[in-house]
Design goal:
Length: 313
């Protein structure tokens, strides 16, 4: 269940109440007259089934509440109510399968911004990857995978493509296009410094190592990227964020960037090119799979909403 709070201009409150009271997925309706100060208006609250949220929000946006009032959603961890149980049963579809599109847009939009925090995490992840390469430490490579923040912009690109939100695609694309080169450039400086001070040398990459999978491109590179992209988008759209950790440690994006830098500094150009190709395959595969999953979920949600009545009448 989700808790909805809407600030409504007084002349639209009756229509807001009509939207909520008529929908089978809404319950626990509360109205507090003249409670809102900025923006001024009435406060309307309700608990809604997750699978009904998208339709209810769309109906409230038709009333321009997003421009002349406000709409907020919060997750309810526990709801002890027969009315809430009925709302979830009567709402179309299943809660775990429901996508709250405005929530998804807000989440991916926030995570796709190019800012100091994003660049810092990506740079630290690339530096960790470089250390993992020169020390042949799979544990450090996994750490770099977890620290890397690149899935946020990749998911945003997929969401933007499916919803045709080109502003989101541009913003996320900018974060990736600037973030990876910047992180790799800083990692390049650290790698050159490490070689100059004798922390490692070309012998670090010669022979067989546990981390050689990073630059070895094959069919499984694309397969893993597709599976990770699908799992990541399923996690984001179903609010099961714990699964994202598995996504982070299954794709070779940041490790490939770090390996490419180390290999370039040590003049191992074959391995450098292989790492860059690995990086591109993973980035593209994640976006493609995430977009496909999003399109399938959107189609399934629309089908579910037409199969069951939405109004109480």
């Amino acid at each position: 269940m989700l808790h909805l709070r809407a600030v409504s201009p007084p002349d639209r409150t009756d229509r807001v109440l009509e939207v909520l009271s008529d929908h089978r997925g809404a319950t626990h309706l509360v109205v507090i007259k003249d409670a809102a100060i900025d923006p001024a208006g009435d406060v309307v609250e309700a608990d809604i089934a997750r699978e009904a949220a998208d339709e209810i929000i769309d109906a409230l946006c038709v009333l321009d509440l997003d421009h002349h009032g406000g709409i907020t959603l919060e997750v309810i961890d526990t709801a002890l109510s027969d009315a809430a149980d009925r709302a979830e049963e009567d709402a179309p579809g299943e809660g775990a399968d429901a996508v709250v599109w405005q929530e998804l847009l807000g989440r991916t939009g926030e995570e796709s911004r190019l800012n100091a925090t994003f660049l810092s995490f990506l740079t630290i992840a690339c530096l960790l990857a470089a250390v993992g390469v020169v020390t042949d430490s799979s544990v450090t490579i996994v750490g770099a995978m977890v620290v890397g923040p690149e899935f946020g912009p990749l998911a945003a690109v997929a969401v933007g493509l499916v919803l045709r939100r080109w502003d989101l695609v541009r913003r996320a694309g900018l974060a990736l296009a600037v973030g990876f080169p910047a992180a790799m450039l800083i990692t390049l400086g650290g790698t050159v410094l490490g070689e100059a001070t004798g922390l490692f040398n070309r012998e670090s990459l010669i022979g067989d190592h546990d981390v050689d999978f990073i630059y070895q491109v094959g069919p499984y590179s694309l397969i893993v990227a597709l599976l990770a992209g699908a799992a990541g988008m399923l996690s984001m759209t179903s609010a099961k964020s714990a699964a994202l950790v598995g996504v982070f440690i299954s794709v070779t994006t940041v490790p490939a960037a770090g390996y490419a830098v180390v290999a370039a500094v040590l003049n191992e150009w074959g391995r450098c090119i292989g790492s860059v190709v690995q990086l591109v395959i993973n980035l593209v595969g994640i976006v493609v799979a995430a977009a496909v999953v999003l399109m399938l979920r959107r189609r399934g949600q629309r089908r579910a909403s037409t199969e069951r009545p939405l109004s109480r009448g």
